[in-house]
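Slide 14.
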Amino acid sequence: MQEHDILILGAGWTSTFLIPLLSAKRISFAATTRDGRKVAGVTTIPWTFNPDEDSTQQTSKSQFSSLPLAKHILITFPLTGPGQSQNLVKGYSLAHGNKTGGSVKFIQLGSTGIWQIPQKTLWVSRKSPYDTENKRAIAEDELLGLDGCVLNLAGLWGGERDPKKWVDRVAKTKEDVKGKRSLHMIHGLDVARAIVAMMGRWELCKGQRWMLTDGFVYDWWSLMAGWADSKNENGGGDEDGGKADREPLDQARWVYEIMREEKVHALPRSMEELGRCYFGREFWDQFGLVPLKARI
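Slide 15: predicted structure.
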């Protein structure tokens, strides 16, 4: 059985960027989806993780038996609560015994949402306190204890994910706009580049949690004001988006009303006004990279 460089468990949106990068770099891979559909032109293995099956005992057949050998396992779907990370890590290892060329390296994709708790400092890093009762964080901590690595991702954008289209969903009213402060993002291509970099520098990954952003702290008000004409650009207004008497988005108008009411002279607001700010440079510094798609 061929041993791949990486096995992607749950090839979804991230894999539309990762698979082309792996192919371009000639890194061997396999990927799974629930239904075996093609992702980025590649046929995937139909497979679904069953967290209720105890795969930590040696059996002749387990849910991992059909999976190929790989040096790295990328887990893209969330594992939650105690036991699931151990089930997956030990279950895969038991199913393949000594057929792997060494200890398998597990990478879990997580979310920076675990740091959305009161902090004592303005700047939040990967070492800052996080919500240890969060079910995803519990599973991530368990994986770290098994010498895995966790990559906590900021808001994802790129391809079909256009942040401009989120405005109507996240800020339906003026009061919603008033409450919007900082935003942190990462492009799918840079997620893919980060994963490949981690595969080559495992000494920086073993038992470690990393935070991944593009290094910017965005001001929601700045974005809404800057996207004032996006309803025309996105086809929500005039067909040609070029009528001279077109109107800005409601959210952009509300931003300027609130700026006047709260005596905010200009945008973006200061880091202190934005509140929680993620230290987005550390990963790139340590791995010797810079984002390709910074600034939405």
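Speaker note: The first strand starts at residue 3 and ends at 9.
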